[in-house]
Fe2OG dioxygenase domain-containing protein (Chlorella vulgaris), 371 residues
Amino acid sequence: MPSRPHKKQRSAIGGDVVVRRALAWLNSYQAVSKWMHRYKILRLIEQQRVAIIDNFLPGHVAEGALRILEDIDAGQWRDTSADDETHKNNIAHSFWSLKGGKPAAGGQGGAANEALETLLRAFQVLLPDMFSTFSAGRYQRGSHIAPHDDRAYTPVRLDTGEVITCSRDVTCVYYLTKDWQESMGGAFVDLEAPPAAAAAAADSSGEQGLQQGRVLVPRFNTAVFFRVPHYHMVTPLTTDRPRWSIFGWYLQPGQLYELYTGQGDERQVKADAAAAAAAAAAAAGHQNEDAPCVADGQQQHTEGGTEQHPPSQQHQQQPHSAAVMQRRRKGTASKQRQLPAAENAPQCKLAQRMLARLAAKHQRKAELLHA
């Protein structure tokens, strides 16, 4: 279990001018929607596979976002951990995360948590036709994420009270740490980058090519997007400075792929071999023998831990079926295909209705062509 983050004595968040300016922008749906509309995320991912966007939010908003995370009371961060259990689709992980909202009874930092909820809500506007779930992440010395591909099912509770099963479709990681160096660890490693791309990545922008993949060193106010499944990892932190981020997923109704259970996935087997090297690097980077060696899990990969609670529908609408179907990747039947519901998993009635409508539409087109 990681040591709890140190509590920082700061001024009340409501009296912070930087935070107030950021919240004024974040609470304006018109401003957020206009800004986010400029990004054609799905098109960028199709073109680049891993899309990297610098200056993702207005500068003053990014400054306020960092302050929001720094001002969260230490007792509010949630310790998420799990053992390495491939039969449960888990990779061992242990770190701190928070979804925002009202703190637990008797807890402190309510204003900061509500400010975080406002910040996370802005990411829903980026792809409004998709379900989404986002959290804040704090990584400290020894934290890292073992190789994985983010595959996971997530229960979503609709406004009607119905719970449907969704699959992670697009991953987002938004970095909020300043002046970060590769030697500090915490770098994103794209394990699916072509060798030529990995070798060509060495430049002055904070990216560096390694034999095992392309390394992206976190840059303040930079967001990274990619489709699920996509193999990647995060190198172990070797510094006492915390690394801040917002992370999450945009979801599609249904079970779009099989989950890894320890057999039949050659790429995951190879990734598991790389995990041993990551663990060795983590151990080598520890100055304190008690510092934890952290790896993330399949149930909440990339920047967080196992997520047990369905995303709230308080601030997002049910996706329109046509828009959702248009967002499905072309030519990925081998990776993302509709599968029977897993044992004991909630049946996704919404996805079944969508697929039935799509099948009926194709049938009508076929009948017209042969008429």
